[in-house]
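Budget justification aside, the reviewers requested a transparent look at the raw inputs and outputs of the sequence design task funded under Objective 1. We therefore reproduce one unedited record. The lines immediately below are the structure tokens for a 83-residue chain.
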């Protein structure tokens, strides 16, 4: 497994907690597109397919990263709205 950068880990932890890309972007003063690009890199590095798998891949006990909605990866579209 390729290690995550500090920024990628920060974003991965927020995403694993169910925070949506728009909110992550607002909190970290990034664009939604930058957050989504980081998430794609994170998924590739960790060998996962979406947010639901982030918690276990990050070794978080009892947290699976699901946002409790519909099981999709939760990525926002370029306009910042949920797909």
């Amino acid at each position: 497994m390729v290690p995550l950068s500090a920024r990628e880990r920060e974003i991965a932890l927020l995403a694993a907690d169910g925070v949506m890309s728009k909110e992550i972007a607002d909190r970290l003063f990034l664009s939604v597109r930058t957050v989504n690009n980081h998430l794609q890199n994170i998924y590739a590095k960790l060998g996962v397919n979406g947010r639901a798998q982030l918690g276990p891949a990050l070794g978080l006990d009892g947290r699976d990263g699901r946002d409790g909605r519909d099981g999709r990866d939760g990525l926002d579209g370029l306009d910042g709205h949920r797909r």
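The domain at 6-57 is CATH 1.10.10.10 (Arc Repressor Mutant, subunit A). The radius of gyration is 11 Å. Computational costs for records of this kind are itemized in the attached budget.
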